[in-house]
Amino acid sequence: MVEFKGFSLIFFLGFVLGLLLQSGLGFGLKDPQENDRIIELPVQPLNVGFSQYSGYVTVNEQAGRALFYWFVESPAPGLRPLVLWLNGGPGCSSIAYGAAEELGPFHIHPDGKTLFLNPYAWNTAANVLFLESPAGVGFSYSNTSSDLYTAGDQRTAEDAYAFLISWMERFPQYKYREFYIAGESYAGHYVPQLSQIVFQKNKGIANPVLNFKGFMVGNAVTDDYHDYIGTFEYWWTHGLISDATYRELRITCDFGSSLHPSVECLNALKLADAEQGNIDPYSIYTPPCNNTQSLRHNLRGHYPWMSRAYDPCTERHSKVYFNHPEVQKALHANITGIPYPWDTCSDIVGNSWTDSPLSMLPIYQELIAAGLRIWVFSGDTDSVVPLTATRYSIDALKLPTLINWYPWYDKGKVGGWSQVYKGLTFVTITGAGHEVPLHRPRQALILFRSFLQNKPMPIN
C-alpha cells in the first residue's frame, strides 16, 4: 500500500473527501441553506444590500405537508433579532401581503413584472421571515389533498412550530438569537397560539434554540364577543350603517359564537354591507379599486363581516408576478407542480376552516403572566377588525395602567395614540387601515423599532 507521510493514500483521500462533503465544496454540492439562497429575483432593483432565501420545509412527512418561506436578512450591522411574520385570512398568503405590499423589502409595480425598493422595509431593523401557512396557502402544499379541507387553528400552530424547529437546523446561525412573532388580522389567532406553543416547549430549557421574547399583532381577531360588539359599534359611529341596522345587528347576532350565525344575523349583515356601499372596508377613507364590489367575498369563513383580502389592485400585481415561471424558479417555489395557480388567498382553506376558538384572551393572560413582551396595534380606519374591537378586548383583560393614553409623534405630527399596561402595550396608527405598513409605512417602522427596543412610542 502506498504511504503518504505516515498515512495511507486511501485514508488520506477519504479524509479529503469528507472535508469536501462537509463544506459543500467540489462535486457541485451545496448545503441546504445555500440551496435556498435567492441569487436575484426577476427585475429586482440594483445594488440590493442584503441576502435573501426561500424554499420549502417539510412539516409532516407522512402527509407530505411542506410550508414555503421567504427570508430576508437585515443589512444593518450587529446581531439583529429574528422576526416571523404571519398574515391571516384564514387562508391568505404572507408573501402576497406582508412581503409584497406591506413590510417586505420589495413592492411590485402595476405591470406585475418589476420590483421597487420599500424604503420602510422591516428588515432594516431585523431579519424577517415570511411564512405561507397553513399548507394549501400560496406555494405551501400537501400531498394529502384532504388537508386543504381540514385546516384549522391547532394544526396551523403545530405545523408552524415544526417549521421553525426544522428551519433553525437549516439556519443554525439564528439559533439562540432574539426571536419574535408578529402578524395581523386572523394572525391574531396564529400569533398567540404559536407563541403559546413556543413558550410551553421552552419551559425548563435554560438556553432554548428559539430564544422567544414576545409577540406583536395588528388589527387582530382576538375575541369573538368583543370583536362583534366593537365592529358593529365602529360601523355605526363612523356613519357606515343606519341606526336601525345597528340595532338589528346587536339583537340578532350571537356574540358568543361566530361559527354559525343565525339567518337573521346574516340578513342584518347583508343589509349593513348594502348600506356601506362601494367602499374599501379595510381602509374606509381611501378610494376603492375599480370593480371592488365584484371582487369582494362577503360572509367569508367564520367572521361574516370579513371580506377576504385588502386591496384588489395590489392583489392583482402579486398574482401576475408570483405566477411568472421565472419568478417561481428564482424563489425555488412550486417545485412539485402545484395543480392550481398561486393565489393571494385560498378559498378552499378559508371556507373549510375546522377549529377556531372563540377567544385568545386566555392565552394573553398566560403569556402576560410569563413576562413576555406583548404589543397590540391598530390602524384606525379599518372597519373589518377595527380599533373599537381591539380596545374592548384589551379592556377585558383588566390590566393595570402604567402610562395613560397619550399621543405619539412622528416629525412633530401625531402618529397615533398609545397606552402602556402592565404586560401589554397598545398603539394606534392614525389614518392607517387594516394593513398598517401599507398605508402608513414610516409610522409602522417606528412602531416596529419601538417594539424591538421595548421603548414607549416617541412623544416628540
Overall description:
With 460 residues, the chain is of the alpha/beta class. The chain has two domains: 3-30, no CATH class; 33-224 and 317-341 and 357-453, Rossmann fold (3-Layer(aba) Sandwich). The chain contains 16 helices and 15 strands. The strands form three sheets. Strands 3, 4, 5, 8, 9, 10, 11, 12, 13, 14 and 15 form an eleven-stranded mixed beta sheet that branches. Helix 3 crosses helix 10, helix 4 (153-170) packs across helix 5 and helix 6 (224-237) runs antiparallel to helix 7. It is globular and about 65 Å long.
Mean pLDDT: 88
Class computed from helices, strands and strand pairing: alpha/beta
Q: Which sheet architecture does the biggest sheet show?
A: 11 strands, mixed
CATH class of the largest domain: Alpha Beta
CATH superfamily of the largest domain: Alpha/Beta hydrolase fold, catalytic domain
Ends apart, CA distance between termini: 79 Å
Poorly predicted runs are 1-28, 292-312
The CATH architecture of the largest domain comes to 3-Layer(aba) Sandwich
Q: What is Rg?
A: 23 Å
Number of domains: 2
The CATH topology annotation of the largest domain reads as: Rossmann fold
Helical percentage: 25-40%
Fraction in beta strands: 15-25%
Count of individual beta strands: 15
Number of helices: 16
Shape: globular
